[in-house]
Amino acid sequence: MDEESEDGGRRTKRRDVIILYLLQYGCGSEFLVVVYKYVGAGNPFTKDIARGIMLLRINNLAKGFSGIRLETLQTMVDMLNKGVTPIIPEKGSLGASGDLAPLSHMVLPMIGLGLAEYEGEVLPGAEAMARAGIPTIELSAKEGLALNNVHRL
Predict the structure, then answer these.
(1) Are strands 89-91 and 41-44 parallel, antiparallel or unpaired?
(2) Which residue from 68, 103, 109, 139 could staple onto 30, CB 3.0 to 4.6 Å apart?
(3) If we measure between CA atoms, which residue out of 131, 150, 134 comes closest to residue 77?
(4) How far is it, in rounded angstroms, from Cα 107 to Cα 110?
(5) Where are the alpha helices (DSSP H) in 11-139?
(6) Rounded Cα–Cα distance for residues 7 and 148 (Å)
(7) pLDDT tens across 92-118, in order?
(8) Using CA atoms, how far apart are residues 44 and 89, in angstroms rounded to an integer?
């Protein structure tokens, strides 16, 4: 957990991100499901591909078989409609376990972390969401797995 990760030119430690979140919101297993998989690398997907990934997840989750709240799904729809695009690295898929790393990067702005592009700027996830007028969410039971455990990339 002490490995450093590159975040838009800033170097941060995943451990520090986890500690900050836990202090702010309390311990949540769904948060940990997402953040522990936040290990992608390489160049980010293009904006169109990242938005396509979101659209595919929305389409799949809207069927109602994954234990996700409507509020969480609506957050993803609002992100697409208002132009908040998560920065998702091209490398990091874990194969047989699904696309946990890239999809975790997709989820981070929803919970106020990670990076997202908004109006041509790459911003911290919380700032991009705030500028777009989209409230961040706290993940409920099963949502971490529902959002990031699928073979899509």
Answers:
(1) antiparallel
(2) 139
(3) 134
(4) 5
(5) 14-25, 29-35, 47-61, 70-82, 100-107, 125-132
(6) 20
(7) 665 555 566 778 888 899 999 889 999
(8) 4
